[in-house]
Specification:
Elements lengths: L4 H13 L7 E6 L2 E17 L16 E15 L4 E8 L4 E5 L2 E5 L2 E10 L7 E8 L4 H4 L12 H6 L3 E10 L3 E8 L12 E13 L2 E13 L8 E2 L11 E2 L6 E15 L2 E14 L7 E13 L6 E3 L2 E3 L10 E19 L6 E21 L3 E16 L4 E5 L2 E10 L1
Antiparallel strand pairs: 1-2, 2-3, 2-24, 3-4, 4-7, 5-6, 7-8, 8-9, 9-10, 10-11, 11-12, 12-15, 13-14, 15-16, 16-17, 17-20, 18-19, 20-21, 21-22, 22-23, 22-24
Keywords: Signal
Organism: Xanthomonas hortorum pv. carotae
Pfam families: Porin_O_P
Length: about 425
């Protein structure tokens, strides 16, 4: 997609000129609502060292072993008031693009972000009713702010099991140290995106919640119906611009409903943050000969703020601070290990023709190391290296195939 240089330049000047531009830009008070504007632009590059599969083929558009894209270009209007009401309306047009491949033009549409109204009971931000589209309560990493992700790509388990935004209604209660959120949801607002009604719940508890010293625990559960009684789980190798999924359950039919249970923990001490999440999925199938399908995965990550800053904690998620010295910025080093297992079956030897009993979607393990630089109040630059090890059954060879590529990922980010 070609973003207007005038629009992008104007947004840049606005952000640089606005005081404390790390926050949203105030526009006006309309109908008793304080209206403001937020924006986020992310430009990504991926460089692949392929092993077996071509990670940006067959529809990669930028080279044999590289891919570049505007990852996000989000514009969000927010309103505070009248009274105890808050509202948000967000849209990302960056996926409005056309790619011509072998004579065929593929066009994708934009994406609606958070679009909802929230009422805070007695003005308490921890006790609210929310209606519209919003992120569902099931993942610490998914619920954390996108502009402050610790890595260029979220963990494979988050991208696989995190349901993200859906239209629905939610009720939340709690205080600074604990929270309970329950929701009921339907489809995604964006056309031709996720469908399936369901419900979710998440509870968090921070037995230690002091400045620079936080211990957090959480549990979550999602239950939802499938679209056309079919489920397919698959994952990219922790790189968002790859066009290939190294592990893939394939289309599993006769699936009536899916449940995803999650557990999370986080510890912040001074300039260090350690967090981990575990997910287990259970797909309930219908029919006499249909066995339920189960999969699981987890990650653990650590981040060090080299320049000494610590994190905040709000609404059950960490918050990233501004740099202590804006001119030199906030520097981070990070490491993550994540693993995802989509196998729920085994290979049965039957003479010279083995067959699969159950589902062999594959298993993937990824080590990622990265560095982040937050410069002043509105810029972030990130560089990651991911080493992947994956194994998956191949029907062509009738055996297991190892595919162990590596990827360099870079991101330039501007936000206000």
């Amino acid at each position: 997609m070609k973003l207007s240089p005038t629009l992008l330049g104007s947004a840049l000047l606005l952000a640089l000129a606005a005081p404390a531009a790390h926050a949203e830009i105030a526009i006006d008070v309309i109908g008793g609502s304080e209206v403001s504007l937020e924006g986020l632009v992310q430009a990504d590059g991926n460089w692949f060292h392929n092993d077996v599969q071509d990670l940006n083929g067959p529809i990669g558009a930028n080279g044999d072993n590289s891919e570049f894209s505007i990852r996000r270009a989000e514009l969000v209007l927010k309103g505070k008031g009248p009274g105890n009401f808050e509202w948000v309306a967000g849209y990302d047009p960056s996926v409005l693009k056309e790619v011509t491949i072998r004579g065929t033009t593929i066009r994708s549409t934009g994406r609606f972000l958070d679009n909802n109204i929230k009422y805070k009971f007695a003005g308490n931000a921890n006790n609210y009713l929310q209606i519209g589209q919003f992120k569902q309560p099931n993942s610490l990493e998914e619920l954390s702010s996108t502009k402050n992700n610790d890595f260029v790509s979220k963990a494979a388990v988050t991208n696989t099991y995190g349901i993200s935004r859906r239209l629905g209604v939610a009720y939340g209660m709690g205080d600074n140290n604990w929270s309970i959120t329950a929701s009921a949801f339907g489809r995604e607002l964006t056309r031709n995106q996720a469908h399936g009604s369901g419900y979710g719940a998440r509870g968090t508890w921070a037995p230690i919640n002091e400045s620079g010293n936080v211990l957090h625990f959480g549990l979550s559960y999602l239950g939802y119906d499938t679209d056309d009684d079919t489920l397919r789980l698959r994952a990219r190798p922790d790189a968002d611009l790859t066009t290939i999924r190294l592990i893939d359950s394939g289309a599993i039919t006769t699936v009536d409903s899916v449940g995803v249970a999650g557990a999370e923990a986080m510890w912040i001490t001074g300039p260090f943050k350690l967090q981990s999440e575990f997910f287990q999925e259970n797909a309930k199938r219908i029919g006499n000969n249909a066995n339920d399908y189960k999969s699981d995965g987890w990650y653990v990550s650590g981040v060090w703020n080299i320049t000494g800053e610590t994190w905040g904690y709000k609404a059950g998620v960490p918050t990233t601070p501004l740099p202590n010295a804006p001119a030199s910025g906030l520097w981070q080093l990070a490491v993550r290990y994540d693993t995802l297992d989509l196998n729920d079956g085994h290979l049965v030897s039957n003479g010279s023709t083995p067959f699969v009993d159950g589902v062999l979607g594959g298993k993937m393990d990824v080590w990622t190391i990265g560095a982040n630089w937050y410069w002043r109040s509105n810029f972030k630059f990130a560089l990651d290296y991911a080493k992947v090890e994956s194994t998956r059954y191949s029907s062509a060879t009738r055996g297991l195939v190892d595919d162990n590529p590596s990827i360099i990922e870079a991101r330039a980010q501007f936000y206000w």
